[in-house]
Amino acid sequence: MTKVRDRVQVDVDSVDVGSAATADALAAVSTSEYEVQAIVEHHGRSSTCGHYTALGRDGSAWRDLNDHRVKMLSPRDARPAASEGFLFVLVRKGATSAEAAAREAFRALYVLRDEAEAAGASRRKRARLQPC
């Protein structure tokens, strides 16, 4: 599997999915504008080798989640990293449950991190992989 290295510019405050959505989907919501709540990134040369980190929005603050280290970021610091993300968690603007959705997305990032760590440690033990 080949890692796609194309960079994508994403405005973390406003993503309009209207051009990609069907008419039925657009009719079901009040807006096609979304806000990025979390970004998962992969650092490494290939899709099978490297390290996963995540950026998560908590209100107006951003956090960089990297293994057991969590670092606070400003929204400006989070923007350049958004171009390297491969998974973006979006919440529709104006959604009444946006705060709850953001909390759930943030919790999900911690769960994914823990699962990835456990799987990675298990794979390394079984396969005795060399570092990338």
Automatic annotation (TrEMBL):
Gene Ontology process terms (BP): protein deubiquitination
Species per Swiss-Prot/TrEMBL record: Cafeteria roenbergensis
Domain of life: Eukaryota
GO MF, any single term: cysteine-type deubiquitinase activity
Protein name as catalogued: USP domain-containing protein
Domain USP residue range list: 1-93
Alphabetized Gene3D superfamilies for the sequence: Cysteine proteinases
